[in-house]
């Protein structure tokens, strides 16, 4: 039985301009009322996940910044991880040569070196403004402690950058394409799976008692946890190949679990 339902945000539950389908909202509310609770696992910041949950009208556990921060549905922090200062400095110096937008995220803020129309476009998809910090490189690892460093650009550049980052820092960090326009760099062993494991260990449930839905490469680690993984039909082919089922919408994943009789009832998930 499924005792926790996990959804990604961008490209999954959350569309362009922060759009959320009414069918997904209704399905999530019905599921939580009668059965297992919800967790959101996203590359976004925790306060952004909270805002999405408010818009959906539900409460939920939160795995933010690809597993760097984990909170339960009462707001208790379960886990937090940021970059070592020396490593963060080396990364920011190395990626400074990349012809892409660079952002540095802390627990609740995002920084970049200069303002331009591309930064404005990125900001429009966030729930907060990007802070322009001209001396960002000098502050990283000192007054700015990163939890995530990201490069933004067109898909072709993102895929090339992801390969170069893997070659340079593959043994020291976790990196993955979180969206076709973004490659994320995280502290080693920080990903959605490790974040979810931190969460479910306290509930005494097993990985195969969760179901998850996502659309990008940063969702693959949670797909590996359970046989009940769902990929969005808009996902990259390599992502869809790793999921057990492909769906067009989040509510279809919930409906599929329900049809299979896999959604645990409230009393079975009372401690989660």
What does this molecule look like?
This is Cof-type HAD-IIB family hydrolase. Pfam families: Hydrolase_3. With 272 residues, the chain is α/β, with parallel strands linked by helices. It folds into 2 domains: 156 residues, Rossmann fold (3-Layer(aba) Sandwich); 103 residues, Hypothetical Protein, Haloacid Dehalogenase-like Hydrolase, Chain: A, domain 2 (2-Layer Sandwich). It is 33% helix and 22% strand. The chain has 10 helices and 14 strands. The strands form 2 sheets. An 8-stranded mixed beta sheet has the order 5-4-3-2-1-12-13-14, with helices on both faces. Strands 8-7-6-9-11-10 form a 6-stranded mixed beta sheet, with helices on both faces. Helix 1 packs parallel to helix 10. The model has no long low-confidence stretch (mean pLDDT 93).
Please outline what is shown here.
With 272 residues, this protein is α/β, with parallel strands linked by helices. It is built from 10 helices and 14 strands.
Features:
272 residues; alpha/beta; Rossmann fold; Hypothetical Protein, Haloacid Dehalogenase-like Hydrolase, Chain: A, domain 2; hydrolase; HAD_sf
* Secondary-structure element pattern, one letter each: EHEHEEEHEEHEHEHEEHEHEHEH
Helical stretch tally: 10
The chain-level mean pLDDT equals 93
CATH class of the largest domain reads Alpha Beta
Spatial ordering of strands, largest sheet: 5-4-3-2-1-12-13-14
Instruction: Pick out the low-confidence regions.
Output: none
Which shape, going by the Cα principal axes? globular
Work out the number of β strands: 14
Q: Tell me the count of domains.
A: 2
Secondary structure category:
alpha/beta
- Largest sheet descriptor: 8 strands, mixed
Helical proportion? 25-40%
Note the beta-strand portion.
15-25%
Q: Tell me the distance between the termini.
A: 13 Å
The CATH architecture of the largest domain comes to 3-Layer(aba) Sandwich
CATH fold field value of the largest domain: Rossmann fold
């Amino acid at each position: 039985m499924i005792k926790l339902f996990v959804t990604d945000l961008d490209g999954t539950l959350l569309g362009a301009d922060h759009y959320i389908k009414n069918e997904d909202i209704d399905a999530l509310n019905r599921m939580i009322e009668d059965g297992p609770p919800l967790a959101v696992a996203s590359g976004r910041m925790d306060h952004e996940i909270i805002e999405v949950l408010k818009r959906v009208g539900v409460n939920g556990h939160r795995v933010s910044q690809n597993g760097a921060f984990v909170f339960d549905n009462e707001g208790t922090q379960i886990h937090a991880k940021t970059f070592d200062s020396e490593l963060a400095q080396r990364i920011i110096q190395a990626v400074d040569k990349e012809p892409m937008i660079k952002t540095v995220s802390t627990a609740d803020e995002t920084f970049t070196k200069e303002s331009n129309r591309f930064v404005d476009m990125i900001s429009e998809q966030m729930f907060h403004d990007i802070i322009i910090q001209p001396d960002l490189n000098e502050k990283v690892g000192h007054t700015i402690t990163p939890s995530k460093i990201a490069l933004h650009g067109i898909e072709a550049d993102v895929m090339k950058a992801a390969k170069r980052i893997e070659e340079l820092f593959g043994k020291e960090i976790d990196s993955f394409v979180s969206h076709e326009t973004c490659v994320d760099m995280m502290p080693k062993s920080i990903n959605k799976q490790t974040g979810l494991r931190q969460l479910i260990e306290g509930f005494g449930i097993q990985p195969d008692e969760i179901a998850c839905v996502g659309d990008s490469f940063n969702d693959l680690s949670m797909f590996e946890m359970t046989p009940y993984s769902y990929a969005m039909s808009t996902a990259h082919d390599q992502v869809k190949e790793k999921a057990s089922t492909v769906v067009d919408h989040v509510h279809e994943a919930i409906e599929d679990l329900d049809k299979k009789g896999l959604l645990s009832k409230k009393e079975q998930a009372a401690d989660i």
